[in-house]
Design goal:
This protein has helices spanning 18-27, 41-47, 50-69, 75-91, 98-106, 127-134, 149-164, 171-187, 196-206, 217-220, 223-233, 256-265, 267-276, 282-292, and strands at residues 6-10, 31-32, 114-118, 140-146, 212-216. The chain is of the alpha/beta class. Helix 6 (127-134) packs across helix 9 (196-206). InterPro entries: NST/OST (IPR037359), P-loop_NTPase (IPR027417).
Length: 293
């Protein structure tokens, strides 16, 4: 192992290109990413949910062992099992153990200069926890990806509906109900994954400016945008496969009435982002225009 790696925390946003980024970095020659994309280590510590994640991990390990025993030829399964067992050893202990956490990220990296934890749930963490994360290594980098708020919310609604549906015929109505529920929660003041205002404010208060990049997903998915991101991370400028989308979800058009209501509910998010990042992508500007006329 050569030197101390840079540690990247990609803290979201949910449904804003984090799976595509994981795939790109996983294949990048300067990066070492384990096969578990979302570790949830710091939200486990913050909320005391280690027991729940241990249970989920045990179930995953059992499924991987069963698949290997059944003769599944994919070599990636063996790697996934090794990674899961290594991670089980880290979260099996009570309390915080940053040495074990960093050891897990770095195990097997060789001389590659960057390791990463891509967990969108970290955007919900309080300022104090984010600041502590920024100091876990001499070089840390934080990335927060922004996607058009209405498109992101509808993508999340479709994801939730796909997980819960019993039959594909239920999908359109269930996705609409999920969207309706989330719009109502936003209008009632509930803050969740859509809250760019809170996440950006906490990140800027907790993380030094030279360690933080806030970038539009739409920008990342271009040659100049990806080059900017890779320069920020200190890794080689490698072209991305922009044609291949990861976990894009089941296609379904957003009903016009829900789109209009979502634009109104999310108007403060559009306005906040526009005030801090004036060079908005076109789809953001279109949705802002529809709200304000």
């Amino acid at each position: 192992m050569s030197g101390t790696p840079t540690v990247l925390f990609c803290v979201g946003a949910t449904k804003a290109g984090t799976s595509w980024l994981y795939r790109h970095l996983h294949r990048h020659p300067d990066c070492h990413l384990r096969s578990i994309k979302e570790l949830h280590y710091f939200d486990m510590l913050e909320s005391g949910t280690q027991r729940r994640f241990r249970k989920l991990l045990r179930e995953k390990i059992a499924l991987l062992r069963a698949a290997i025993a059944d003769g599944n030829p994919r070599p990636s399964l063996e790697r996934q099992l090794r990674d899961a067992l290594d991670w089980k050893a880290v979260i099996g202990a009570e309390g915080e153990n940053l040495d074990a956490y960093l050891g897990y990220l770095s195990n097997g990296r060789g001389a590659r200069p960057l390791v990463a934890d891509i967990t969108p749930a970290y955007a919900l963490l309080p300022e104090a926890r984010l600041h502590r994360m920024s100091e876990v290594a001499p070089r840390t980098r934080f990335l927060y990806l922004l996607r058009d708020p209405v498109a992101r919310l509808w993508s999340q609604a479709r994801m939730l509906a796909a997980r819960r549906m019993g039959d594909i015929a239920e999908f359109p109505a269930l996705a609409a109900r999920m969207m309706e529920t989330m719009i109502t929660a936003i209008r009632d003041g509930v803050r969740d994954r859509e809250d760019y205002i809170g996440a950006i404010s906490r990140l800027r208060a907790a993380v030094a400016p030279d360690r933080l990049l806030i970038q539009f997903q739409e920008e990342m998915m271009t040659l100049p945008g990806l080059s900017r991101l890779q320069a920020f991370l200190g890794i080689s400028d490698i072209a991305g496969d922009f044609e291949h989308r990861v976990h894009e979800g089941t296609p379904l058009s957003l009903p016009d009435d829900l789109r209009a209501r979502a634009r109104v509910a999310l108007a403060p998010q559009y306005e906040f982002v526009a005030s801090h990042f004036p060079d908005l992508p076109g789809n953001w500007r279109q949705n802002m225009t529809e709200v304000h006329g």
